[in-house]
Amino acid sequence: MASFLGYLATTDKEEKALFLKWLQLKLDMRSRKDMSSLRNRFQEQSLVKQGNTCLEELDQCILDSSLGIEHFMREMGQIYEASSLGNPQASAEHCSLPALAAELLLDGYPFELLDGDASNIPEKWVTDVLMELHRKVGEKSKLLVLTVLGVQSTGKSTLLNTMFGVQFPVSSGRCTRGAFLLFLRVGEDMRKDLRCDFILLIDTEGLKSPSLAQLDESCEHDNELATLVIGLSDITIINIAMENSTEMNDVLQIVVHAFLRMKEVGKIPVCHFVHQNVAGVSAHNKNVADRKRILDRLNEMTQIAAEMEKRPSVNRFTDVLDYDADKNNWYIPGLWQGTPPMAPVNTGYSEAVLDLKKNLLEVLKTCRYKEPSLIPEFIEWMKSLWKAVKYENFIFSFRNTLVAQAYDNLWKEMTQWEWESRKNIYTWQMKADLQISNLEVNSFEIQSEIQDLQKLQESLKSEALKMVATLEKEMTEKLDAYYKKKDRNVSLIEKNKIDLFHHIRDVHRDILNTENNKLDMAVKLKISTIEADDIHRKQKVMIEQKVLQLLQNSNDNKTPLSDEQLEDEFGKMWSQEVVKISGLEEQDIPSHVFKQLRRDFSNRNVNEEFQNIETLTAYGMEPFKARGRHICTMTKFKLKMMMFGRKKKAKESLQRFSESVIDTCRRIILDSTKSQTDYHESLTKEVLEKINESLKENYKDLKTNTKFEIDLKLHICGIASREFLQMHRNFLLRKDPQKRLEESKNQYLSAFVDLYRERDHCQRKAQDFVQHSLRPAILQYINRFLGTDIVDEMVISSHAAEYSSRSSFQYSILKELLEKDDFQAFVKYFEKYEIYVKDLICQHIKECLSAEMSFDMLKNKRLKEINQKIMEAIEKASQPLPKDTKSVTEFMKNLCKHLDKDISISMNAVEVVLFQISTTCDRFTTSLRESLSDLKQQMQDEFSKSIDIIESLYALPIKPQDELFMRVSGCAKQCPFCKMPCDAGGKEHRQHHANAHRPQALGSYRSVQTQELIETLCTTDVNSKKSFKNGDTDWELHPYKDYRTYYPEWNIQPDSTDEASDYWKYVLATYNDRLAVMHNAKPAMIPEAWKSITKEQALEGLKVAFGIKV
Fold it and tell me: Looking at residues 1005-1025, what average pLDDT do you find?
């Protein structure tokens, strides 16, 4: 080996080529000495049924006699892998071996991918050699892969050698064993058309070897080989010797399984059947009927394979891949004209192979179903594929880093498109709200105005429907265009396409429903405001009349009054008149909530349960308690539970579930009450929908009855009725005519004194308008945009990677939990996932607002924007107006009109400012600009002061934490065994999956007999012969590997290695005793090896699970 490596290390390529050629010749001569007699003995023994022992011994002798350069290369790989596991010094001595092998690959020598003797891929060796080649070609290594597969000794290697002028071994010695790679560099003239830098040829050993047919596991070996090489290929040539040979049936059965498996993982290779040793030159035309029989046979085997792979939707071979019996079948004559070795070469063979080559190149040019992969991507795919082949993980479960990366990349785009849709609709909603809020109302025709408002509501709903439809169409077109680009391995997630279109549809349905609810609330708020404003306007007119009367009386008094006397007289008048003002009528909010609750049960006979309920406010005062009557009666589930003494544990689980739902709904209720609006029935509807969703999700585990549902909803609706009643009272307080007049008292007093003193009040009036009309409107404008601004900043902040996709966010959460080392944080994550995540998001926002960006920076940005708009509106509104006192009123009307698409100005406050105004328009606008400048500085000073960021987030109309949660939240479904949340994006998908399943103990799963928490992972159990039983199986044992009988929507990837589970092993080992106490069970019997896992190893396991590379 030292001499061999020494010659390979030479820089003289001619000397190296000469050495390798002579070495191959010498090795062939050595092999010929014993090969002939050994083969004859093998053939004789295969005819005698004596068992397999003698055949195996002879087979090993043939292997030992067959020595080629590939064996030296294999030894290089074994030396390299062995040294990498030893001491660093030995590793350093052999670190140049991958470079030597890469040089040979670039020189056109074959390289062993699959060790045919050991049926193993030396992953480290292959990876390092290919990565070295990737570096040597300047990382320009786009590959198109072509593979030949067929029965042994049918001329597979010869076919590739003839087609591409390469030198796969075909001389003396045994047939090809394993699989070999050969890199064929693409010339500059064809690189653009083929879109690749290399064509990678894979030559394989023969299937259905007659000499190996009697050996154990030969069929399994063939299936593994076919699945591997077809999975790696872009074009697969199925090589069949002799015209319509019956041996073809066995080969087709193998390859159909492989193609079906590849279809399920998104790999769609092109397939051509090559029939060799065909005598007639017109065989293609004569074999129409035979091709029809081949297709029928393919269809038959496809149905059998689909049944075995549990794919009932696949019925025909054309359901698996694009196949044309005329275009995908080739007939090639024999290589020799006569009997070798004296027979001449058949030129027809070369001509037929050339035609095949031309066709394949055309297919490669026109085939746009995927972007050629680079060597690193090929390596990742190879590793995942080989792992799946080794553990037979294809049925429903093949996932690998390339598929995950392609899915993740698409969801990053989808998330951004969805956010753009939401931002567009939010912008439209702001304009719609302003349109409703700024609708002019005639106090003498309120009923007519309400009808106009309702017409506007219908018009806006129609407009919202059209806009949402447009946004849905745009997002659908973007997704369609993304798939048509066919880059970044998008073909691997072709099967997710329909789910994604459904997700887009459902997202926009939710958006439309939300917008309709918001329009309903905005209209109801406007109607409530109209009624309150009407009362306020009438009282204001009365107050203004009294102020003018008081002014007249004071002017008639011959004795001048001091300011104190004027204030005293004004105060007496004010107190006498304000006390006469009546307040607004309070609605019975608990009654409205109760009606919503009864409507929720309208399809069920539960009237008796609600007959004795007088008011909801009495419910939800005490902590909720789960009781035995809440669990289904007269069921096998309960009888079994009572038999095993689990009733108490069932109540404990139900109690934890109830508390989780109550906490989540309480958060929704409190979020709603923080908005500055009145109660609307949609608020109660949202709470009830959340309860129904939680009950539906957990019914299988908890087996609750209607009594539990009623008690839980009464408890939560009791809380809601009190909070919504207080929300309604706060709204009435803000709109109370007496309170609103009190807010204007100082303005009327100042106007009264100024008029009495005949002082100039231009500056004061301008300040009043700015402070009482513009300031609230500006703050509202800033807050309307602040939520979306924060989201936009978060997705480009230091947390950008975390919020780019759900998998990235899940990784960051679990990593943070590991670093915190806080058991209660884990418990909150397990039991109250949504609350935990939203709190964490709020914390991230707080960190960013405190470090990278600031609240005042975002506010000042919007302040500057609206300030500029107001200045421009002042300029427009004052042109062209006369410079007299009457023009001020006209100016104010124009100003409000120019700003009605940006802010909502209270006309009542404007009317107070215009009361007895006696200044000219130009002086007023000058004072207004000065006051506006002062207001800007004042607000900037206020923004710079420290505030409670978290409290401010919950007060915003668009809450950034909710928007970010929607970006990273999945469908909320949990694994039936370990309770890990689904990692698939969106809510509409056919298959749920989790990247990192955890020990079932963390999902409170325990043994019925021992009451010990179950330490195994569901990914391990579904790959084993173990069984499980729970309420879903009526407590009958059921095999884990057939879990889809009860959970068909879940895709749990079998994994006997558990490489990616070190994270959860560490968590369970660390918190085993505390988890047992929490679940009232015995600690899990965890292996000793788990206790030695370090935090660093746990983090590495997490990275493997989520495909994170650092």
Answer: 81
